[in-house]
């Protein structure tokens, strides 16, 4: 049978998560996505109304099918973690026809372990787990001006969220499967403007990739890698404020002077989770037109 993938962090057709979903679908995988609860309604409505049909087109002319969209909030692991004001927030308590148990219990909020449980109930198992999400409420602030709360929020949403996802999904991942996340060069080199502890969060994610590769490799024969992607004008990146500048900088300075397409990251993801990459685990794979190799701006 074909492989089944769960992709956390898809809420429109602009980001890396969408491009990864498409590349996996084109390779024959069944696609499940996890969408942040506040963005869920608009994403599902747009899907249903055909707003994404043009970008759902696969190379063979068919449209990518998303077997199921799961509501997901990566900063809570159990119902007790959810603050009252969030539970009663109407974007979370929105009207939907989800049939999951937690809909009534927790105002439609489905969290970490519950997502894995629902996927297990619906489909039994998965082969591929993709983490394509990040959030840093103080990302526009220099690290020197970042609060403890902002720093920890960045780590919670962008790094621990991956530990939690893999922790909860590993038991339902078929041996030989693989997982990937998305990171950024700011983990290793100073990138002024990528603040609020986001650089720290990516550094944690990269370190965790090595440790999780060992643990998940031994425990479940699962490979764990991360893609260090170049700049893309996604919704999340636009919120940071200097993405156009970074794209321009890359164009001027990278070995390959071309636009970086989300599909190029999608294709690398498809390779990394496929048997073609069966000996690659714990790695950071750069998909950035080579920008990371440069030591001098030209
Ligand atoms: P995106 O906006 O398509 O994806 C970010 C997703 O995270 C969104 O769908 C958002 O709804 C979701 N999200 C935020 N907080 C969440 C939470 N608490 N629970 C669940 N979902 C949550 O943007 P993009 O840029 O494609 O981001 C995907 C990954 O790629 C991120 O890890 C990002 O750091 C990484 N990346 C992006 C680069 C860029 O230039 N766009 C460069 C290098 C890495």
Keywords:
single chain, 298 residues, alpha/beta, seven-stranded parallel beta sheet, 10 helices, 39% helix, binds 1,4-dihydronicotinamide adenine dinucleotide
Task: Enumerate the distinct ligands.
Answer: 1,4-dihydronicotinamide adenine dinucleotide
Q: What is the gyration radius calculated from CA atoms?
A: 18 Å
Low-confidence stretches: 95-108
Biggest sheet, spatial arrangement of strands: 3-2-1-4-5-6-7
Number of helices: 10
Morphology call: globular
| Percentage of β-strand residues | 15-25%
The N- and C-terminal alpha carbons lie at a distance of: 50 Å
Helix percentage: 25-40%
Overall pLDDT score: 92
- H/E order of the elements? EHEHEHHHEHEHEHHHE
Structural notes for this entry:
- This protein has ten helices and seven strands.
- By secondary structure, the protein is α/β, with parallel strands linked by helices.
- The protein has a seven-stranded parallel β-sheet with strand order 3-2-1-4-5-6-7, with helices on both faces.
- Strand 5 (173-183), helix 7 (198-220) and strand 6 (223-229) form a beta-alpha-beta unit.
- Helix 6 packs parallel to helix 7 (198-220).
- The longest helix is centred in the C-terminal third of the chain and has 23 residues, at 198-220.
- Residues 95-108 have low confidence and may be disordered.
- 1,4-dihydronicotinamide adenine dinucleotide (NAI) is lined by residues 9-11, 14-17, 36, 39, 72-75, 132-135, 157, 182, 184, 229, 231-232, 234-237.
- 1,4-dihydronicotinamide adenine dinucleotide is lined by residues 9-11, 14-17, 36, 39, 72-75, 132-135, 157, 182, 184, 229, 231-232, 234-237.
């Amino acid at each position: 049978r074909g492989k089944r993938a769960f992709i956390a962090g898809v809420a429109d057709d602009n980001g890396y998560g969408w491009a990864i979903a498409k590349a996996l679908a084109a390779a024959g995988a069944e696609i499940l996505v996890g969408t942040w609860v506040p963005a869920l309604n608009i994403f599902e409505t747009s899907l249903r109304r055909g707003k994404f049909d043009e970008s759902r087109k696969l190379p063979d002319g068919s449209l990518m099918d998303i077997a199921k969209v799961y509501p997901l909030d990566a900063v809570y692991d159990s119902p007790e973690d959810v603050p009252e004001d969030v539970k009663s927030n109407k974007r979370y308590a929105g009207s939907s026809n989800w049939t999951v148990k937690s809909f009534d219990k927790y105002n439609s909020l489905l969290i970490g372990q519950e997502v894995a449980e629902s996927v297990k109930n619906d489909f039994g198992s998965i082969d591929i787990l993709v983490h394509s999400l990040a959030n840093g409420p103080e990302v526009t602030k220099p690290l020197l001006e970042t609060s403890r709360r902002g720093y920890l929020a960045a780590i919670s949403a962008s790094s621990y969220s991956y530990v939690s996802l893999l922790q909860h999904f590993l038991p339902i991942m078929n041996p030989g499967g693989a997982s990937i996340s998305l990171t950024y060069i700011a983990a290793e080199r100073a990138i002024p403007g990528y603040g609020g502890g986001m650089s720290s969060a990516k550094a944690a994610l990269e370190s965790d990739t090595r440790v999780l590769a060992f643990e998940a490799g031994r425990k479940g024969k699962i490979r764990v890698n991360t893609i260090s992607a170049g700049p893309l004008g996604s919704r999340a990146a636009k919120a940071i404020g200097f993405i156009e500048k970074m794209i321009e900088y890359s164009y001027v300075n990278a070995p390959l002077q071309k636009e970086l397409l989300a599909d190029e990251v999608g294709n690398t993801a498809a390779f990394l989770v496929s048997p073609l990459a069966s000996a690659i685990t714990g790695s950071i794979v750069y998909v950035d037109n080579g920008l990371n190799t440069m030591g001098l701006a030209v």
